[in-house]
Design goal:
The structure holds 2 protein chains of 2 kinds. By secondary structure, chain A is α+β, with helices and mostly antiparallel strands. Chain A contains 17 helices and 18 strands. Chain A has 2 domains: about 140 residues, Penicillin-binding protein 2a (Domain 2), CATH 3.90.1310; about 325 residues, Beta-lactamase, CATH 3.40.710.10. Chain B has one domain. The model of chain B has no long low-confidence stretch (mean pLDDT about 85). The chains are: A alpha+beta, B mainly alpha. Chains A and B meet through α2 of A and α8, α11, α13 and α14 of B. Chain A: One of its GO terms (biological process) is cell division.
Chain lengths: ~600, ~400
């Protein structure tokens, strides 16, 4: 223990010397020092106590002031505020190239419940089930009474249903406004539009987000509040409806399981019409097929024109001919070896039905007769590397850049290696697969004088820019060859008076999933350019597993299936597109003048 | 010496107890407390009826109980206010010890009444919340330790009291009862502040409390939900605060009339935590201002009386008791007007409640005892030239 020093030492020493008790002096000193400490403490705490008193006065004044402010404000009808950020509900309309509505929004109401505000849950459940027979009364009543405070009942109500629910008259039933996406034309252009559904759903609004097609691909643009105008597509609603109607008739007539058509403006790259059958109603989009064994093409949601990767057959032959002419290897009259069957290594190249067009054919006749052997010899002269480069320029090696969400996922199927036999098979459209959209894009390059352009679904007024892939002269010669396919070749049913149709047929056996090819299942394609003397449009018509069995002979070649369908499409659509038919001038002298002779 | 014989009349040395009490006690504070109790009873006539009807009891069952407990609290307060400071100190410390043991026993013998926090001992007819009784005793103990630390060769009272505070806060946080632990911390802080806490330390402590709040926010869902509700800009009309705000608006300046209010039917805690909303709705802003003034009067008057107190223990204990009493009222009313996040805190003397009313009676009784007029050595001040 430390001993505290004696204080005040002088007096204590004095006291000790005089025999007095020093403890008294020490205690007196201690008491005095305590007094001093207490005085100091009181002085110090004075300010602090005043501080506390002022703090509490201010705090109570603040509470009182705030109470006064609240008391002075008007009581408001209790209103539930939307929690979180307001959901943006305005989605731009989609129109066709002439401003006709393809997709718009409609205000409806969702139905939800606040069971705690409900007066008579049993009655509400009973009357709701009367209105909506798909609801389960017992389950509803249970959910109304199990203590939850919020419950969605229906996502979308028609105005009549809403009125009927209103008439139930229970304060626990509430309506939340929301816009739903409406496609007034039903299934027309279904695969382009895709569909939309609700994203984030709140009581006061719901987000509408695209689920497929251009609705999803252009979702950001459609939801951008800064771009309030409608999204104008390149589609022409009338043309689209006509193409779908004719295509449907053709599909039924040819007993095909599916069909696709693309009509493209060869100068701007605009897709005027894009159809895939069977289709669906985007207002009521069917659920995707989840069965693993089913082919994707079995679902109506499948867009054959963009997602369907097919071996496009003889329609490819014109690319070999065009490239050979462009490289200066040949001209339309150059004779090539066409002696069939042609042996290449262990492979045997045969013509359709084992015919032999040989021994020699001009390049034009190779296209007109659709000679596999002739095309093979042309391709061998071009060589695999140059062939690949040319096809790549035409867009066959990449997914189509079209503005559909399905397009980037649809990659053409390209052989991994490119030996000569692949060069040969590719030249007549076997061994590699591409979509009808790819084919339309490539034919557009031939039709517009040799410029590879990008297809687009958005309206465009200026000609598209693109790289030149062949000379204008080569393009013109190629179109001329294709015209002859119609006038004197495999596509004779394709001629439409006044519109000088040019085109190339393609018949490809369908590959089996297990490998090899079906004997009796084909993909028929007719790729056309019209009018041939001043090409404006490319039309691709593809039929999946068609068969023409009206005659004694069952025919599955494109010339009997896809070609007449395409011709009917052109016959109906060309006037809608504003193309003037070129009819032969009727000489005046054949007109019989009717002379009025009654004077 | 010859007068001191057997059998003679005992002479009164000092003044009679009651007359000295009446002469020295602070009659303003006493009147304010009695007025608050009366207001509490008046409000309870309206506010506790819905609870009674919900529980299937006589409509004025809770009013009767409140009258009983209020009377008990006033008697307790009067008895406490008659005690000398030494007796307050001794009783306070004994009371603290008892309450502390009770608090420590809660996890073993307590009950949570299904509210998710073990805070009560249930004795059939009534329940006791030890933390309510702990607070006045705790303030007295803290003040005693701090005052002792000023003495030459005194104990390190600040450190000891701080450690005790931490233990109590730990027990309260375990329940969990963050409101009471904040009050305990606040009480200790006030005593330490008046005792002369260095300002640097005050800043550090405030920072630590903030960190503790953040910790509680991230670890207690109960706590976090209340804070979130407070921070969101919109008042959800379906929350207690929403109803309270609406009640204050409905009441306006003069109220909708006695018994006409609706908020008591909507709020489950209308008779306790949100009694001020009932007051505002039925009697208007006027009544709220009266209640506020009464609390303000009690705290400000007590603090002013303590300004001239020479005894450090009395000064510290008195200011601590006054401040925890006032801060409890302030928090309760601050919550109702949404100045503070929702926290269950009764309005002393006004809210219904057994433990809280009697504890408030003890608190104010001790406060009254400590603010009584005593010789403060004024003469000595003058003689020594220190006087004013």
């Amino acid at each position: 223990m430390t001993r505290t020093p004696l204080r005040p030492l002088a007096r204590i020493l004095q006291a000790r010397a005089s025999g007095e008790n020093p403890d008294l002096i020490e205690r007196e000193n201690l008491a005095w020092r305590h007094e001093v400490i207490r005085d100091r403490g009181r002085a110090r705490s004075e300010g602090r106590l005043l501080f506390l008193a002022i703090f509490f006065m201010l705090a109570f004044s603040l509470v009182g002031g705030r109470m006064g402010v609240i008391a002075a404000s008007q009581p408001q009808e209790p209103k539930a505020e939307a929690s979180g950020a307001q959901i943006l509900a305005t989605r731009a309309d989609i129109t066709d190239r002439n401003g006709r509505i393809l997709a718009t929004n409609m205000l409806t109401h969702a139905l939800y419940a606040h069971p705690k505000d409900m007066v008579d849950p049993a009655r509400v459940a009973r009357e709701l089930v009367e209105l909506f027979p798909d609801m389960d009364q017992a389950a509803l009543e249970k959910r109304f009474t199990d203590g939850r405070s919020f419950l969605w009942l229906r996502r979308v109500l028609s105005p009549e249903q809403m009125q009927a629910v209103h008439d139930i008259g229970d304060p626990g039933l509430l309506f939340g406004p929301r816009e739903v996406r409406l496609y007034p034309n039903g299934p027309i252009a279904a695969h382009v539009l895709g569909g939309a559904s609700f994203g984030a759903e709140g009581v006061h609004s719901a987000e509408v987000i695209g689920t497929a097609g251009i609705e999803k691909a252009m979702d950001a643009r459609l939801r951008d509040p800064a771009q309030s105008g409608p999204l104008q597509l390149s589609l022409d609603l009338t043309v689209q409806a006509t193409v779908e109607e004719v295509l449907y008739g053709g599909m039924v007539m040819m007993k095909a399981k599916g069909a696709a058509a693309i009509l493209m403006d060869v100068r701007t790259g605009e897709i005027i019409s894009l159809a895939s059958l069977p289709d669906f109603d985007p207002n009521d989009r069917p659920a995707p097929i989840t069965d693993k064994t089913a082919e994707p093409g079995d679902s109506p949601l499948f867009n054959r024109a963009v997602q369907g990767m097919y071996e496009l057959g003889s329609t490819f032959k014109i690319f070999a001919a065009a490239q050979a002419m462009d490289l200066g290897l040949m001209n339309p009259e150059t004779m090539v070896d066409a002696n069939a069957p042609m042996r290449w290594g262990k492979h045997l190249i045969k013509e359709f039905k084992g015919k032999n067009y040989g021994p020699l054919l001009s390049v034009t006749d190779v296209i007109v007769q659709s000679s596999n052997v002739g095309t093979a010899h042309i391709a061998l002269q071009i060589g695999g590397l140059r062939q690949q480069a040319f096809l790549k320029q035409l867009g066959f090696f990449d997914p189509s850049p079209i503005e559909l969400i399905e397009a980037p996922g649809a990659k053409p199927l390209i052989p991994a290696r490119w030996p000569d036999i692949v060069t040969i098979t590719t030249s007549y459209g076997h061994g590699m697969s591409a979509s009808p959209m790819h084919l339309a894009t490539a034919y557009a390059a031939i039709a517009n004088g040799g410029i590879a352009i990008k297809p687009t679904l958005l309206k465009r007024d200026t000609p598209a820019q693109g790289i030149r892939v062949m000379s204008a002269d080569t393009a013109a010669k190629s179109v001329s060859m294709l015209r002859q396919v119609v006038t004197r070749g495999t596509a004779s049913y394709g001629d439409v008076e006044g519109y000088a149709v040019a085109g190339k047929t393609g018949t490809a056996d369908k590959p089996k999933k297990t490998g090899g090819y079906y004997k009796d299942k084909v993909i028929n394609t007719f790729a056309t350019i019209f009018p041939a003397n001043n090409p404006r449009y490319v039309l691709i018509v593809t039929l999946d597993e068609p068969v023409e069995d009206s005659g004694p002979e069952v025919r599955r070649t494109a010339g009997y299936t896809a070609v007449p369908v395409a011709a009917e499409v052109i016959r109906r659509v060309a006037p809608l597109l504003g193309l003037r038919p070129e009819v032969d001038f009727t000489p005046v002298d054949q007109i019989t003048a009717v002379v009025e002779d009654n004077h | 010496m010859t007068e001191m014989v057997y059998g003679s009349m005992p002479a009164r040395v000092g003044e009679p107890l009651l007359s000295r009490w009446w002469r020295t006690v602070d009659k303003w504070t006493l009147s304010a407390v009695i007025a608050l109790s009366g207001i509490g009873l008046l409000l309870g006539l309206a506010a506790s009826v819905p609870l009674a009807s919900r529980n299937g009891l006589d409509p004025f069952y809770y009013v009767e109980r409140q009258a009983f407990f209020g009377g008990l609290a006033l008697v307790t307060m009067l008895i406490c206010s008659m005690l000398p400071p030494q007796a307050i100190r001794r009783l306070g410390i004994l009371g603290f010890a008892a309450a502390f043991v009770a608090l420590a026993m809660l996890p073993i013998a307590g009950t949570d009444f299904g509210k998710g926090a073990v805070r009560w001992f249930s004795f059939g007819f009534a329940s006791v919340q030890p933390s309510e009784f702990l607070k006045p005793g705790f303030i007295v103990l803290t003040a005693w330790l701090m005052a002792a630390s000023f003495d030459i060769n005194g104990p390190p009272g600040k450190m000891i009291s701080f450690l005790i505070t931490l233990v109590i806060v730990g027990f309260l946080a375990m329940q969990p009862d963050f409101g009471q632990s904040m009050l305990v911390l606040f009480g200790w802080g006030v005593v330490y502040f008046v005792a002369g806490a260095p300002f640097l330390l005050i800043i550090v402590v405030v920072g630590l409390v903030g960190l503790g709040g953040i910790f509680a926010y991230s670890n207690s869902e109960h706590f976090a939900r209340r804070i979130d509700g407070f921070l969101s800009p919109d008042v959800d009309p379906r929350t207690q605060i929403g109803y309270a705000t609406n009640a204050i608006q409905e009441g306006g300046f003069f109220g909708v009339g006695v018994g006409e209010g609706q908020v008591k039917w909507a709020l489950p805690d209308a008779h306790t935590d949100f009694i001020i909303a009932v007051a505002a709705e039925e009697y208007g802003l006027l009544m709220v201002l009266v209640i506020l003034s009464l609390y303000g009067l009690i705290v400000v008057r007590s603090l002013f009386l303590l300004l001239r107190e020479r005894d450090p223990f009395v000064r510290l204990a008195g200011s601590g008791l006054a401040c925890i009493f006032a801060v409890q009222a302030m928090i309760n009313m601050g919550v109702a007007v949404r100045l503070l996040p929702a926290k269950g805190m009764t309005l002393p003397f006004v809210s219904y409640g057994g433990s809280s009313v009697i504890a408030a009676g003890i608190t104010v009784g001790m406060l009254l005892a400590l603010t009584r007029q005593r010789p403060q050595g004024e003469m000595a001040d003058y003689l020594k030239g220190r006087g004013r």
